[in-house]
Amino acid sequence: MGLIETDTSVARGPGDLGAVRELAMHVRQAGIASGATAALNNVEPPSGEELASLLRTMIAALEASPVPKFEWAGVVRVLDPEQLASLLTVSLSSLNRYQSGERGTPDSVAARLHFLALVISDLAGSYNDIGVRRWFGRKRSALGGRAPDQVLTGEWDPEDAGPARVRQLARELVTMSAT
User: Fold this and answer.
1) Any alpha helices (H) in 30-160, and if so which ranges?
2) How far apart are CA 12 and CA 7, in angstroms?
3) Among 44, 48, 97, 124, which lies 20 to 30 A Cα-Cα from 172?
């Protein structure tokens, strides 16, 4: 989602409470999951079970919270402007204005951008940037022989059945690589 740079100390590892707290602070600065962040920063460190619960809460909040201010930079590092404009169903000039902050990102575009940021995040566990870009154009039997970029056309909504299936395919790659 672009909330942290990958070269920051947050990348130390999931078992490091300091790293988790630092990550939570970045999330809180974006206006997300402030309650979970406060609980992580209590004087008494959370138990393993409490930490897992707080992280699940943060993940759910992140998935439900578009933050275009941060997401533009992360998504444009992976997708070229033409591909991104097509997937978002916006013109290149509008994309440039939204990305630069010259014009506010409309809610519908912010929702699609957020969806793409989440899909890219899922794919990043299996593909490099070139592979991620190409993934959107490959036909998939699970999509009825269509490619993800053929499903994500027009005024699509991330909660529609087609986009939900695209996200599920991306998530399955993470699950498969973890086994």
Assistant:
1) 34-40, 48-63, 68-76, 81-88, 92-100, 107-123, 129-135, 148-151
2) 10
3) 48
d(CA 56, CA 121): 17
For residue 155, the 8-state DSSP code is S
CA dihedral sign of residues 34, 36, 37, 43: positive
pLDDT band per the 50, 70, 90 thresholds, residue 179: very low
Answering whether pTM is above 0.90, one says no
CA–CA dist 34, 150 (Å, integer): 37
Contact yes or no for 176/169 (Cβ under 8 A) = no
Q: Hey, how many other C-beta atoms are within 10 angstroms of the C-beta on 162?
A: 17
Largest CA distance in the chain: 54
Backbone phi, psi, residue 140, to 5°: -130, 130
pLDDT, tens digit (0-9, with 9 covering 90-100), for 40-68:
777 677 777 877 877 877 777 767 677 88
Cα–Cα distances (Å) from 175 to 26, 103, 110, 120, 170, in that order, read 26, 38, 27, 15, 9
**Residue that the structure tokens 């979970």 belong to:** 36
